[in-house]
Amino acid sequence: MNSIIIRGSKDAGKSTTIREVCKRLGPQKIYKLIISPSFPSRIDDAKIEDIFNDTFVIEISGKSILICAGAPTEQNKPITLLIKICIELEIEISFALVAMRSFERLDDFDTPKELKDLGEIISTEWIRSIPGDYQNTQEWNERISRVSHLVETNI
Q1: Using the 8-state DSSP alphabet, how is residue 126 labeled?
Q2: Residue 60 has what pLDDT?
Q3: Residues β-bridged to residue 5
Q4: 127-136 long-range CB contacts below 8 Å, 24 or more apart?
Q5: Who is most buried in 52, 68, 120, 135, counting CB within 10 A?
Q6: Strands 42-45 and 2-8
Q7: Which 8-state DSSP code applies to residue 149?
Q8: How far apart are the C-alpha atoms of 107 and 122, rounded to whole Å?
Q9: CB–CB of 102/7 below 8 Å?
Q10: Which residues of the chain have pLDDT under 70?
Q11: Cβ distance 12 to 105 under 8 Å?
Q12: Across 69-111, where does the E strand assignment appear?
């Protein structure tokens, strides 16, 4: 499984970036991964607007992509746990798009190492917050285009 990491500080726009990339990819299906310690994990139908600070699975051209719009440390769920749950739900993940804080400060979290153990990290995109009307900036459009292109060419 190949992956891309969207890395930045708190409030840098990681989740918003991932949602916009998903919009551009035009998924045929979107699911939210529901993880509960007291009930079996499941997926629920979701909309593109729901993609924010949580974990989703989108389908593009018959392939499932894991979307960690919330950094694993923010969700307190290591990436390997999220993959394990997908396997239990019989979802074959072809690719992962993962938000990550600049530095992981929780013990037992090493998202890049976990992703490397699962396949190749195609790119780590370091992002920063874009002030003002960010969606109308060249930096924003280039960021979304670059990441979207990387996903499309590597799934």
Answers
A1: E
A2: 95
A3: 98, 124
A4: 127/6, 127/7, 127/8, 127/12, 127/13, 127/14, 127/17, 128/8, 128/9, 128/12, 128/13, 129/8, 129/9, 129/11, 129/12, 129/13, 130/13, 134/13
A5: 68
A6: unpaired
A7: H
A8: 25
A9: yes
A10: none
A11: no
A12: 93-101
Are the beta carbons of 83 and 118 closer than 8 angstroms?
yes
Does an H or E element contain 111, and which? helix 111-118
Annotated domain spans of the chain: 2-154
CB 31 within 8 A of CB 56: yes
Encoded amino acid at 12, one letter: A
DSSP string, 5-24: EEEESTTSSHHHHHHHHHHH
pTM over 0.70: yes
Q: What is the pLDDT of residues 47-86, one digit of tens each?
A: 999 999 999 999 999 999 999 999 888 888 999 999 999 9
What pLDDT is attached to residue 105? 75
**DSSP strands (E only) in the chain:** 2-8, 29-34, 42-45, 55-60, 63-68, 93-101, 121-126
Q: How far is residue 100's CA from residue 124's CA, in Å, rounded to a whole number?
A: 10
d(CA 13, CA 6): 9
| Helix/strand/coil for 96 | strand
Count of H-run helices and E-run strands, the chain: 5, 7
Per-residue model confidence (pLDDT) at position 83? 92
